[in-house]
Design brief:
The structure is a single chain. The chain has a single domain (50-351), classed as Sandwich (Jelly Rolls). The protein contains 11 helices and 14 strands. It has helices spanning 13-16, 53-58, 63-76, 89-104, 107-110, 161-189, 193-200, 269-274, 313-319, 330-338, 346-351; strands at residues 50-52, 79-83, 122-124, 139-146, 205-212, 224-227, 233-238, 245-249, 252-255, 263-267, 284-286, 294-301, 308-309, 328-329. The chain has an 8-stranded mixed beta sheet. Strands 6-11-8-9 form a 4-stranded antiparallel beta sheet, with no helix packed on it. Helix 3 (63-76) packs across helix 6 (161-189), helix 4 packs across helix 6 (161-189) and helix 6 (161-189) packs antiparallel against helix 7. The chain binds 2-oxoglutaric acid (AKG). 2-oxoglutaric acid is lined by residues 208, 210, 224, 229, 236, 245, 284, 286, 296, 298. Belongs to the iron/ascorbate-dependent oxidoreductase family. Keywords: Iron, Metal-binding, Oxidoreductase. One of its GO terms (molecular function) is metal ion binding. InterPro entries: DIOX_N, IPNS-like_FE2OG_OXY, IPNS-like_sf, Oxoglu/Fe-dep_dioxygenase_dom, Plant_2OG-oxidoreductases.
Length: 361
Protein backbone atom coordinates (compact mmCIF):
# COMPACT_ATOMS: atom_id res chain seq x y z
CA UNK A 1 0.00 0.00 0.00
CA UNK A 2 1.61 3.32 -1.00
CA UNK A 3 0.65 6.46 0.85
CA UNK A 4 1.54 9.94 -0.28
CA UNK A 5 4.14 11.41 2.06
CA UNK A 6 4.17 14.86 3.66
CA UNK A 7 6.15 17.53 1.87
CA UNK A 8 9.81 16.65 2.08
CA UNK A 9 10.81 20.16 3.15
CA UNK A 10 8.94 19.71 6.45
CA UNK A 11 10.12 16.30 7.50
CA UNK A 12 10.26 17.42 11.09
CA UNK A 13 7.89 19.86 12.77
CA UNK A 14 10.43 20.11 15.57
CA UNK A 15 12.92 21.62 13.09
CA UNK A 16 10.30 23.80 11.44
CA UNK A 17 9.24 25.21 14.81
CA UNK A 18 12.79 26.44 15.48
CA UNK A 19 12.44 29.15 12.79
CA UNK A 20 12.15 32.77 13.93
CA UNK A 21 8.99 34.68 12.97
CA UNK A 22 7.42 31.51 11.68
CA UNK A 23 4.25 31.72 9.59
CA UNK A 24 2.41 28.44 10.03
CA UNK A 25 2.43 26.64 6.65
CA UNK A 26 -1.09 26.07 5.34
CA UNK A 27 -0.92 22.27 5.51
CA UNK A 28 -0.80 22.50 9.32
CA UNK A 29 -3.63 25.02 9.60
CA UNK A 30 -6.90 23.41 10.68
CA UNK A 31 -9.99 24.77 8.96
CA UNK A 32 -12.23 23.92 11.85
CA UNK A 33 -11.05 22.99 15.31
CA UNK A 34 -13.75 22.42 17.89
CA UNK A 35 -13.20 24.70 20.89
CA UNK A 36 -12.24 23.50 24.35
CA UNK A 37 -15.06 23.69 26.87
CA UNK A 38 -14.78 26.84 28.97
CA UNK A 39 -16.24 26.46 32.47
CA UNK A 40 -18.43 29.33 33.70
CA UNK A 41 -18.59 30.61 37.27
CA UNK A 42 -20.69 27.76 38.57
CA UNK A 43 -19.11 24.92 36.60
CA UNK A 44 -15.62 23.56 36.37
CA UNK A 45 -13.86 20.96 34.24
CA UNK A 46 -15.20 17.52 35.07
CA UNK A 47 -12.18 15.57 36.27
CA UNK A 48 -11.06 12.24 34.90
CA UNK A 49 -11.84 9.37 37.32
CA UNK A 50 -9.04 7.81 39.32
CA UNK A 51 -8.53 4.08 39.67
CA UNK A 52 -6.21 2.90 42.41
CA UNK A 53 -5.01 -0.52 41.35
CA UNK A 54 -3.69 -1.28 44.81
CA UNK A 55 -7.23 -0.93 46.21
CA UNK A 56 -8.57 -3.19 43.47
CA UNK A 57 -6.11 -5.98 44.04
CA UNK A 58 -5.45 -5.82 47.76
CA UNK A 59 -8.76 -4.72 49.29
CA UNK A 60 -10.52 -8.05 48.88
CA UNK A 61 -13.38 -7.09 51.23
CA UNK A 62 -14.26 -4.21 48.95
CA UNK A 63 -13.66 -5.99 45.65
CA UNK A 64 -17.24 -6.01 44.36
CA UNK A 65 -17.62 -2.32 44.92
CA UNK A 66 -14.28 -1.57 43.30
CA UNK A 67 -15.11 -3.69 40.25
CA UNK A 68 -18.48 -1.95 39.93
CA UNK A 69 -16.63 1.34 39.97
CA UNK A 70 -14.18 0.14 37.31
CA UNK A 71 -17.10 -0.97 35.13
CA UNK A 72 -18.85 2.35 35.52
CA UNK A 73 -15.65 4.26 34.68
CA UNK A 74 -15.05 2.17 31.53
CA UNK A 75 -18.67 2.61 30.54
CA UNK A 76 -19.31 6.28 31.37
CA UNK A 77 -15.85 7.67 30.67
CA UNK A 78 -13.57 5.26 28.85
CA UNK A 79 -10.56 6.92 30.44
CA UNK A 80 -9.03 6.97 33.89
CA UNK A 81 -5.91 7.96 35.77
CA UNK A 82 -4.23 4.89 37.14
CA UNK A 83 -2.43 5.39 40.44
CA UNK A 84 -0.46 2.98 42.61
CA UNK A 85 0.14 1.00 39.42
CA UNK A 86 3.25 -0.75 40.70
CA UNK A 87 5.66 0.27 37.92
CA UNK A 88 8.78 1.55 39.73
CA UNK A 89 9.05 5.32 39.73
CA UNK A 90 12.78 5.07 38.99
CA UNK A 91 12.04 3.11 35.80
CA UNK A 92 9.31 5.55 34.72
CA UNK A 93 11.66 8.49 35.35
CA UNK A 94 14.42 6.81 33.37
CA UNK A 95 11.97 6.17 30.53
CA UNK A 96 10.94 9.82 30.51
CA UNK A 97 14.58 10.84 30.43
CA UNK A 98 15.43 8.68 27.42
CA UNK A 99 12.38 9.88 25.49
CA UNK A 100 13.49 13.48 26.03
CA UNK A 101 17.02 12.53 25.00
CA UNK A 102 15.71 10.88 21.83
CA UNK A 103 13.78 13.94 20.72
CA UNK A 104 16.65 16.25 21.69
CA UNK A 105 19.11 14.28 19.60
CA UNK A 106 20.19 15.80 16.25
CA UNK A 107 17.71 15.44 13.40
CA UNK A 108 20.21 13.26 11.48
CA UNK A 109 20.12 10.77 14.36
CA UNK A 110 16.30 10.59 14.37
CA UNK A 111 16.23 10.35 10.58
CA UNK A 112 18.01 6.99 10.85
CA UNK A 113 14.54 5.65 11.74
CA UNK A 114 12.62 7.71 9.16
CA UNK A 115 9.23 6.48 7.97
CA UNK A 116 9.55 5.05 4.49
CA UNK A 117 6.87 5.58 1.83
CA UNK A 118 3.93 3.26 2.37
CA UNK A 119 4.99 2.22 5.89
CA UNK A 120 3.61 3.32 9.22
CA UNK A 121 6.46 2.35 11.55
CA UNK A 122 9.32 4.74 12.19
CA UNK A 123 9.97 8.42 12.81
CA UNK A 124 7.98 11.08 10.99
CA UNK A 125 4.78 13.05 10.82
CA UNK A 126 1.11 12.33 10.16
CA UNK A 127 0.79 9.73 7.41
CA UNK A 128 -1.18 11.23 4.56
CA UNK A 129 -4.03 9.35 2.97
CA UNK A 130 -5.60 12.11 0.91
CA UNK A 131 -4.62 15.19 -1.06
CA UNK A 132 -4.95 18.29 1.07
CA UNK A 133 -5.03 16.34 4.35
CA UNK A 134 -3.82 18.46 7.26
CA UNK A 135 -0.69 17.51 9.15
CA UNK A 136 -0.63 17.38 12.95
CA UNK A 137 1.78 19.71 14.76
CA UNK A 138 3.90 16.82 16.02
CA UNK A 139 6.73 14.45 15.23
CA UNK A 140 6.18 10.82 16.16
CA UNK A 141 7.91 7.54 16.41
CA UNK A 142 5.58 4.55 16.07
CA UNK A 143 6.51 0.87 16.08
CA UNK A 144 5.20 -2.60 16.80
CA UNK A 145 6.94 -4.06 19.85
CA UNK A 146 5.14 -7.40 20.20
CA UNK A 147 5.14 -10.12 18.89
CA UNK A 148 8.89 -9.88 18.79
CA UNK A 149 9.11 -11.45 15.35
CA UNK A 150 7.12 -8.48 13.96
CA UNK A 151 9.69 -5.98 15.20
CA UNK A 152 11.41 -4.13 12.39
CA UNK A 153 15.17 -4.85 12.55
CA UNK A 154 16.05 -1.22 11.72
CA UNK A 155 14.07 0.27 14.63
CA UNK A 156 14.23 -0.91 18.27
CA UNK A 157 17.27 -3.18 17.80
CA UNK A 158 19.17 -0.23 16.29
CA UNK A 159 18.37 2.22 19.09
CA UNK A 160 21.18 3.66 21.24
CA UNK A 161 21.74 1.09 24.06
CA UNK A 162 20.31 3.21 26.90
CA UNK A 163 17.09 3.94 25.03
CA UNK A 164 16.76 0.34 23.84
CA UNK A 165 17.40 -1.25 27.24
CA UNK A 166 15.20 1.17 29.16
CA UNK A 167 12.41 0.71 26.66
CA UNK A 168 12.69 -3.09 26.89
CA UNK A 169 12.38 -2.93 30.69
CA UNK A 170 9.52 -0.46 30.52
CA UNK A 171 7.66 -2.53 27.92
CA UNK A 172 7.95 -5.61 30.11
CA UNK A 173 6.60 -3.84 33.20
CA UNK A 174 3.79 -2.06 31.38
CA UNK A 175 2.90 -5.30 29.63
CA UNK A 176 2.41 -6.98 33.04
CA UNK A 177 0.32 -4.03 34.15
CA UNK A 178 -1.76 -4.24 30.97
CA UNK A 179 -2.57 -7.90 31.60
CA UNK A 180 -3.51 -7.15 35.22
CA UNK A 181 -5.88 -4.52 33.91
CA UNK A 182 -7.40 -6.87 31.33
CA UNK A 183 -7.98 -9.41 34.12
CA UNK A 184 -9.74 -6.84 36.29
CA UNK A 185 -11.74 -5.45 33.37
CA UNK A 186 -12.91 -8.97 32.45
CA UNK A 187 -14.18 -9.42 36.03
CA UNK A 188 -15.82 -6.01 35.99
CA UNK A 189 -17.60 -6.75 32.69
CA UNK A 190 -18.51 -10.38 33.40
CA UNK A 191 -16.37 -11.57 30.50
CA UNK A 192 -14.69 -14.94 30.92
CA UNK A 193 -11.09 -14.15 31.95
CA UNK A 194 -9.73 -16.97 29.79
CA UNK A 195 -11.47 -15.53 26.76
CA UNK A 196 -9.97 -12.09 27.47
CA UNK A 197 -6.49 -13.56 27.92
CA UNK A 198 -6.78 -15.70 24.77
CA UNK A 199 -7.32 -12.47 22.86
CA UNK A 200 -4.78 -10.15 24.53
CA UNK A 201 -2.07 -12.27 26.15
CA UNK A 202 1.14 -11.91 24.11
CA UNK A 203 -0.98 -9.88 21.71
CA UNK A 204 0.00 -7.26 19.20
CA UNK A 205 1.50 -4.33 21.08
CA UNK A 206 2.83 -1.09 19.73
CA UNK A 207 4.10 2.21 21.04
CA UNK A 208 4.22 5.80 19.99
CA UNK A 209 6.52 8.54 21.28
CA UNK A 210 5.29 11.99 20.33
CA UNK A 211 6.99 15.36 20.37
CA UNK A 212 4.69 18.39 20.13
CA UNK A 213 6.83 21.49 19.49
CA UNK A 214 5.65 24.87 20.75
CA UNK A 215 3.59 26.68 18.14
CA UNK A 216 3.38 30.49 17.94
CA UNK A 217 -0.30 30.18 16.94
CA UNK A 218 -1.47 27.11 18.85
CA UNK A 219 -5.16 27.66 18.06
CA UNK A 220 -4.52 27.23 14.33
CA UNK A 221 -3.16 23.69 14.61
CA UNK A 222 -3.81 20.40 16.35
CA UNK A 223 -1.14 18.17 17.88
CA UNK A 224 -3.11 14.97 17.49
CA UNK A 225 -6.25 14.71 15.34
CA UNK A 226 -9.37 13.61 17.27
CA UNK A 227 -9.77 9.85 17.24
CA UNK A 228 -10.36 6.82 19.40
CA UNK A 229 -7.62 4.19 19.54
CA UNK A 230 -7.79 0.96 17.53
CA UNK A 231 -6.70 -0.91 20.65
CA UNK A 232 -8.09 -2.75 23.66
CA UNK A 233 -6.51 -0.28 26.03
CA UNK A 234 -3.77 2.35 25.78
CA UNK A 235 -1.45 3.14 28.69
CA UNK A 236 -0.26 6.70 28.33
CA UNK A 237 2.65 8.45 30.00
CA UNK A 238 3.00 12.22 29.90
CA UNK A 239 6.73 12.68 29.66
CA UNK A 240 7.49 16.26 30.64
CA UNK A 241 4.59 17.61 32.73
CA UNK A 242 3.23 19.82 29.96
CA UNK A 243 -0.47 19.28 29.38
CA UNK A 244 -2.32 19.07 26.08
CA UNK A 245 -4.39 15.88 26.07
CA UNK A 246 -8.14 16.51 25.80
CA UNK A 247 -11.06 14.09 25.78
CA UNK A 248 -14.55 14.46 24.40
CA UNK A 249 -17.07 14.04 27.19
CA UNK A 250 -20.77 14.73 26.62
CA UNK A 251 -19.89 16.54 23.40
CA UNK A 252 -17.33 18.86 25.02
CA UNK A 253 -13.54 18.82 24.81
CA UNK A 254 -12.09 18.84 28.27
CA UNK A 255 -8.41 18.90 29.29
CA UNK A 256 -6.81 15.98 31.10
CA UNK A 257 -4.67 17.09 33.99
CA UNK A 258 -2.25 14.23 34.69
CA UNK A 259 -1.73 13.37 38.36
CA UNK A 260 1.93 13.07 39.34
CA UNK A 261 3.18 9.51 38.72
CA UNK A 262 -0.13 8.36 37.23
CA UNK A 263 -0.64 6.67 33.90
CA UNK A 264 -3.70 7.62 31.89
CA UNK A 265 -5.53 4.58 30.55
CA UNK A 266 -7.80 4.92 27.51
CA UNK A 267 -10.44 2.41 26.52
CA UNK A 268 -10.01 1.72 22.79
CA UNK A 269 -12.41 0.61 20.06
CA UNK A 270 -11.56 -3.06 20.50
CA UNK A 271 -12.62 -3.09 24.14
CA UNK A 272 -15.83 -1.29 23.18
CA UNK A 273 -16.47 -4.01 20.57
CA UNK A 274 -15.47 -6.89 22.87
CA UNK A 275 -17.73 -5.53 25.62
CA UNK A 276 -20.56 -5.34 23.06
CA UNK A 277 -20.89 -1.59 23.61
CA UNK A 278 -20.75 -1.61 27.42
CA UNK A 279 -17.40 0.22 27.45
CA UNK A 280 -16.91 3.55 25.73
CA UNK A 281 -13.82 4.03 23.60
CA UNK A 282 -12.81 7.57 24.37
CA UNK A 283 -12.33 10.13 21.65
CA UNK A 284 -9.26 12.23 22.36
CA UNK A 285 -6.99 14.82 20.78
CA UNK A 286 -3.91 16.79 21.76
CA UNK A 287 -3.54 20.51 21.52
CA UNK A 288 -0.22 22.32 21.60
CA UNK A 289 1.36 25.01 23.69
CA UNK A 290 2.54 28.46 22.55
CA UNK A 291 5.82 28.36 24.44
CA UNK A 292 6.49 24.87 25.71
CA UNK A 293 7.20 21.61 23.96
CA UNK A 294 5.27 18.53 25.08
CA UNK A 295 6.13 14.83 24.91
CA UNK A 296 4.16 11.67 25.53
CA UNK A 297 4.62 7.92 25.29
CA UNK A 298 1.64 5.71 24.49
CA UNK A 299 1.57 1.95 24.64
CA UNK A 300 -1.24 0.21 22.76
CA UNK A 301 -2.54 -3.24 23.69
CA UNK A 302 -4.19 -5.09 20.83
CA UNK A 303 -5.40 -8.64 20.33
CA UNK A 304 -3.14 -11.22 18.73
CA UNK A 305 -3.03 -10.67 14.97
CA UNK A 306 -4.80 -13.97 14.34
CA UNK A 307 -7.50 -13.37 17.02
CA UNK A 308 -11.08 -12.58 16.17
CA UNK A 309 -12.15 -9.07 17.12
CA UNK A 310 -15.84 -9.07 17.97
CA UNK A 311 -18.27 -9.08 20.90
CA UNK A 312 -17.23 -11.52 23.62
CA UNK A 313 -18.98 -14.85 23.33
CA UNK A 314 -19.11 -15.33 27.11
CA UNK A 315 -20.60 -11.88 27.56
CA UNK A 316 -23.33 -12.26 24.94
CA UNK A 317 -24.09 -15.69 26.42
CA UNK A 318 -24.16 -14.36 30.03
CA UNK A 319 -26.31 -11.34 29.18
CA UNK A 320 -28.44 -12.78 26.40
CA UNK A 321 -27.80 -9.61 24.40
CA UNK A 322 -27.29 -10.00 20.64
CA UNK A 323 -23.89 -8.94 19.21
CA UNK A 324 -23.93 -5.30 18.14
CA UNK A 325 -20.63 -5.38 16.22
CA UNK A 326 -19.13 -7.45 13.42
CA UNK A 327 -16.37 -9.96 14.08
CA UNK A 328 -13.20 -9.68 11.99
CA UNK A 329 -9.67 -11.00 12.24
CA UNK A 330 -7.32 -8.53 13.98
CA UNK A 331 -4.81 -8.42 11.12
CA UNK A 332 -7.53 -7.29 8.70
CA UNK A 333 -8.96 -4.87 11.26
CA UNK A 334 -5.59 -3.14 11.65
CA UNK A 335 -4.92 -3.02 7.92
CA UNK A 336 -8.21 -1.20 7.41
CA UNK A 337 -7.62 1.11 10.38
CA UNK A 338 -4.22 2.19 9.12
CA UNK A 339 -5.40 2.73 5.57
CA UNK A 340 -7.70 5.57 6.71
CA UNK A 341 -6.99 8.93 8.20
CA UNK A 342 -7.93 9.45 11.85
CA UNK A 343 -11.48 10.73 12.08
CA UNK A 344 -13.12 10.64 15.50
CA UNK A 345 -14.97 7.35 16.07
CA UNK A 346 -15.97 6.77 12.43
CA UNK A 347 -13.99 3.56 12.11
CA UNK A 348 -15.84 2.02 15.05
CA UNK A 349 -19.14 3.01 13.40
CA UNK A 350 -18.17 0.82 10.43
CA UNK A 351 -17.90 -2.16 12.78
CA UNK A 352 -21.49 -1.80 14.01
CA UNK A 353 -23.85 -4.46 12.71
CA UNK A 354 -26.69 -3.03 10.63
CA UNK A 355 -29.98 -4.84 10.03
CA UNK A 356 -28.82 -6.07 6.64
CA UNK A 357 -25.51 -7.48 8.02
CA UNK A 358 -25.17 -11.14 8.85
CA UNK A 359 -22.88 -11.89 11.79
CA UNK A 360 -20.35 -14.43 10.51
CA UNK A 361 -18.83 -15.30 13.86
O1 LIG B 1 0.05 12.94 23.63
C1 LIG B 1 -0.92 12.52 24.25
O2 LIG B 1 -1.23 12.87 25.38
C2 LIG B 1 -1.83 11.53 23.57
C3 LIG B 1 -1.06 10.52 22.74
C4 LIG B 1 -1.96 9.51 22.14
O3 LIG B 1 -3.11 9.37 22.51
C5 LIG B 1 -1.46 8.67 21.05
O4 LIG B 1 -0.26 8.70 20.78
O5 LIG B 1 -2.31 7.97 20.45
Amino acid sequence: MAFAQPLQSHESVQELAKQDNLTIPHHYVQEHREPTFVPNDSSHFPSIPIIDIHDLIKEKSNMDLQLKNLRSVCCNWGIFQLVNHGVEKSLVDKMKHVVVEFFESPIEEKMRYKLKGGEYEGYGQTILHAQGQKIDWADRFFMITNPRNRRKPNLLPEFPPLLRDTLEQYLQEVQKLGMTLFGLISQALDVDKREMFDVFEDGMQSMRMTYYPPCPEPDLVVGLTPHSDAAGITILLQVNNVEGLQVKKDGMWIPVSFLPDAFVVNVGDILEILSNGVCNSIEHRAIVNATRERMSLAMFFNPKLEANVGPSKSLTRNTGNPPLYKTVVMERYLKEFFSRKLDGKTFLEKMKLKNEDVDES
